[in-house]
Amino acid sequence: MAALQRFGPTQQNLLRALLPAADGLDIEALCTALRVSHNAVRQHLAALLAGGFVTRGRSRASGGRPRACYLLTDAGRDLFPRNYGLIATRVLEHLYATAGPAQVQALLVDMGRELGRGMAVPADADDAAAALASQMDALGYEAQAVRRDGATQVEAYNCVFHTLARAHPEVCRFDLAFMEAASGRPVQHLECLVRGGRACRFRLGERAAGEPPADS
Predict the structure, then answer these.
(1) CA distance linking residue 71 with residue 55, whole number of Å
(2) Every domain of the chain and the residues it spans
(3) Which Gene3D superfamilies would you find in this protein's record (predicted)?
(4) Distance between CA atoms of 14 and 46, rounded to whole angstroms?
(5) Under DSSP, is residue 3 helix (H, G, I), strand (E, B) or coil?
(6) Which of 24, 43, 47, 127 could anchor a disulfide with 122, C-beta 3.0 to 4.6 Å?
(7) What is the pLDDT along the chain (216 residues), one digit of tens a residue?
(8) At what angle do helices 27-34 and 9-18 cross, to 10 degrees?
């Protein structure tokens, strides 16, 4: 819902009206659905078209001039909530129950490494921290790079595994495996939200001698 809330009520309702309309809706249909004037619909459509959330579809015959229809773009559909976190948590809980903690931890480490190897992270420590924070932010961690106690660190204020990590704190190995594979540096987990910290805080160590940059 958060992404939709950046729009006003009428634009939210317009986007919702288009969501189930596989063939799109014309202005007349949108006026009826939203109970607003033609001019209001055109103004809101213009804004959503400019933002890339709506596109023109095929025109529809109407007995007179064909009526233009409007469709949601992929960006428009992405505005609607998808509760991946709940699904992922249930999957991991099932794996813990059936495969056991050791197997799940090994799986999470492998996943973190695989994801990290696909990231292009600079060799410089400060640049690496900034790149990691940006990548983690995109994954939902609300992360930023900081200089603290003379060291380059990444702080994350939203643990994507928070509910699961309270019962199984070893899932944090995913974060460490991801960051180490992406940066080519050892990473120390200094502070954890689940263990009462104000953030999940990670310090990047020195790259091993002869270790190539992750983006080389």
Answers:
(1) 5
(2) 4-77, 84-204
(3) Winged helix-like DNA-binding domain superfamily/Winged helix DNA-binding domain
(4) 12
(5) coil
(6) 127
(7) 468 888 999 999 999 999 989 889 999 999 999 999 999 999 999 999 999 999 999 887 766 778 899 999 999 998 887 766 677 778 888 998 999 888 988 999 999 999 999 888 888 889 999 999 999 988 888 899 998 888 889 999 988 888 778 888 888 899 999 999 999 999 999 999 888 888 999 999 988 665 554 444
(8) 120
First to last CA, the chain: 39
Nearest to 129 by CA among 109, 144, 113: 144
| Topology, domain 84-204 | Muramoyl-pentapeptide Carboxypeptidase; domain 2 (3.30.1380)
**Contact (Cβ atoms closer than 8 angstroms) between residue 30 and residue 41:** yes
> Strand 151-156 vs strand 143-148: parallel, antiparallel, or unpaired?
antiparallel
- CATH C-level class of 4-77: mainly alpha
Provide the edge-to-edge strand list for the sheet that holds 143-148. Answer: 143-148, 151-156, 200-204, 187-191
Distance CA 178, CA 190 (A): 16
The SS3 call for residue 44 is helix
Q: Residue 26 has what DSSP assignment? A: E
Q: What is the bridge-based pairing of β-strands 69-72 and 143-148?
A: unpaired
Is the Cβ–Cβ distance between 204 and 128 less than 8 Å?
yes
